[in-house]
């Protein structure tokens, strides 16, 4: 049985075509609360590891763990900046262009909606875009 | 895989929008320092009497009064030059330090993604040695 062709305004495609898509994926993968908690925990762990530099416990293991910890915290911090750049430039200021089909909140609900399910996201987009729930109808 | 979209989009942002914002921030800092020390005004009014503490020359022929005013005005101008010179020097120095820090921040920002990769490799290298 062949896979039904998804209509161009299928909600998943709309979410994926949105310029907020990477931010939505990031928010789904590591939420803002989790990012902040991890950053704070990481900062404490780095301070503890730095404190071990001047003790007898300083070893390659500690240095290795510190390097990995620094890499993780740095990556998380940069991702947080990436998110904030969108957040303070567009999302919180409600500055969306004519090409934007959805806001961040709508995109987040839609992205969380499972494919092929008539969840909140599909219903919501059903009100916004005609036949947007085409994927759910087609049973994909 | 949607998660692959994040690093690619991130790198795109890191070297375009974020760099543009960073340059904007640096400009703001430099403008603030220049404005804080009134560098432009100080240069424009470098030889003016200090805080406009000068006298008008009296009308009529009075060499004594003229000389008195001339000496006072010259002293005020010299004092103005002295004060402005140091203010411009300190302000200019701080402006240069800010400029240097902005360049440093710009260079650090350019190598940050590479620094993460280097740290990961170093970490595993140290752990597995």
Structure description:
The complex is a heterodimer of chains A (140) and B (129). With 140 residues, chain A is mostly helical. Chain A is built from 7 helices and no strands. Chain A has helices at 11-17, 21-29, 32-51, 60-91, 104-112, 120-128, 134-138. The longest helix of chain A is centred in the middle third of the chain and has 32 residues, at 60-91. Mean pLDDT of chain A is 76; it is low at 132-140. Chain B is mainly α and 129 residues long. Chain B is built from 4 helices and no strands. In chain B, helix 2 (17-36) runs antiparallel to helix 4. Chain B is rod-shaped, with a radius of gyration of 28 Å. Chains A and B meet through helix 2 and helix 4 of A and helix 1, helix 2 and helix 4 of B.
Terminal Cα span of chain B: 33 Å
Q: Largest inter-chain interface?
A: A-B, 24 and 26 residues
Sheet having the most strands of chain B: none
Helix content percent band of chain A: 55-70%
Strand content of chain A: under 5%
What radius of gyration of chain A results from the CA coordinates?
21 Å
Task: Choose one word for the global shape of chain B.
Answer: rod-shaped
Uncertain regions of chain B: pLDDT < 50 for 5+ in a row? none
Number of separate helices of chain A: 7
Identify the overall geometry of chain A: elongated
Major sheet size, sense and barrel closure of chain A? none
- Secondary-structure element order of chain B, N to C: HHHH
Radius of gyration of chain B: 28 Å
Average residue-wise pLDDT of chain B: 91
Strand portion of chain B, in percent? Answer: under 5%
Count of folded domains of chain B: 1
Average pLDDT level of chain A: 76
List the quaternary state of the chains. Answer: heterodimer
Class by helix and strand content of chain B? Answer: mainly alpha
Got a strand count of chain B? 0
Order of helices and strands of chain A: HHHHHHH
């Amino acid at each position: 049985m062949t896979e039904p062709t998804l209509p161009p305004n299928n909600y998943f495609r709309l979410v994926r075509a949105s310029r907020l898509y990477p931010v939505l994926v990031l928010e789904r993968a590591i939420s803002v609360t989790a990012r902040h908690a991890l950053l704070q925990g990481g900062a404490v762990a780095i301070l503890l590891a730095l404190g071990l530099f001047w003790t007898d416990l300083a070893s390659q293991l500690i240095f290795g763990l510190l390097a990995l910890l620094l890499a993780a915290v740095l990556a998380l911090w940069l991702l947080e900046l990436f998110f904030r750049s969108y957040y303070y430039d567009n999302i919180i200021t409600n500055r969306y262009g004519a090409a934007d089909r959805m806001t961040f909140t709508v995109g987040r609900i839609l992205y969380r909606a499972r494919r092929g399910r008539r969840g909140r996201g599909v219903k919501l987009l059903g009100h916004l875009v005609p036949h947007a729930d085409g994927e759910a109808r087609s049973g994909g | 895989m949607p998660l692959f979209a994040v690093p690619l989009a991130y790198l795109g942002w890191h070297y375009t929008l974020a760099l543009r914002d960073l340059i904007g921030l640096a400009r703001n800092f430099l403008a603030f320092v220049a404005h804080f020390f009134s560098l432009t005004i100080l240069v424009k009014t470098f030889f003016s009497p200090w805080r406009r503490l000068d006298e008008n020359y009296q009308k009529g022929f009075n060499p004594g009064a003229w000389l008195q005013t001339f000496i006072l005005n010259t002293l005020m101008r010299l004092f103005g030059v002295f004060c402005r010179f140091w203010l411009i020097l300190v302000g200019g120095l701080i402006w240069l330090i800010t400029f240097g820090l902005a360049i440093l921040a710009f260079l650090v920002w350019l190598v940050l993604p590479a620094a993460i990769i280097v740290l990961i490799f170093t970490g595993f290298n140290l752990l597995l040695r």
